[in-house]
Amino acid sequence: MAKVLILIALCVLPSLITAAHDVRKPFVVIGKVYCDTCRCGYETPATTYIPGAMVRVECEDSNSLQVVFNVDNVTDATGTYTITVTEDHEDQLCYATLISSPQSDCTAKAPGRDKSTVILTNFNGVISNIRHANAMGFLKDSALPGCTQLLKQYQEYDE
Ligand SMILES: *[C@@H]1O[C@H](CO)[C@@H](O)[C@H](O)[C@H]1NC(C)=O
User: Where in the sequence is the signal peptide annotated (predicted)?
Assistant: First the structure.
């Protein structure tokens, strides 16, 4: 009898836990948008963050690669955006991507830093519904004067 109960518990518990996961939806994608003020391809202490930048979360069908879902939002005063996605996007390729920057001297998308993959489904062991996307950036038209010095310090650090 005890064995049967344990067996039932082992079979039923995982599905209860899965059900609890489902209750945690919607997903919340959070990330930052920066201005690469040193035009160096990464964030530095001189990096600034862009309020009012438009970001889109987009999902492609993994077979046709057609965009089947998208939702936009803008960054707040700290350059942070929050995009709520109400449904599960299992079997789709989802990412956050830059749309536009309101900062007139920082509008070109930084190569390789304008997109960040996000997983909008409940996957192995991940209980949280919050998805932190990698920071994405625009390139400043010209590097700040202090950057040469700053980047030199970085290089010395690496050596
Ligand atoms: C857009 O951002 C605002 C402020 O952070 C938030 O309240 C709102 O829910 C967001 N919209 C979506 C679709 O996530």
Answer: 1-19
How many domains are there within the chain? Answer: 1
Flag whether 48 is in a domain. Answer: yes
Closest ligand 1 atom, residue 28 Cα: 14
Domain residues for the domain of 49 are 25-144
Q: Residue 118's CB: how many other CB atoms inside 10 A?
A: 22
Judge whether 95 lies within some domain. yes
Pocket of ligand 1 (CB under 6 A): 71, 73, 76, 82-84
Q: How far is the CA of 72 from the centre of ligand 1 (A)?
A: 9
DSSP-derived 3-state class of residue 143 = coil
Segments of the chain scoring below 50 in pLDDT: none
At residue 115, what is the residue type?
K
pTM, entire model: 0.82
Distance CA 25, CA 20 (A): 10
Pick the atom of ligand 1 nearest to 83's CA.
14
Residue 127's pLDDT is what? 80
- How does pLDDT run across 46-86, given as a tens digit for each residue? 999 999 999 999 999 999 999 999 999 999 999 999 999 99
Residue 1's pLDDT is 67
**Secondary structure class of 152 (helix, strand, coil):** helix
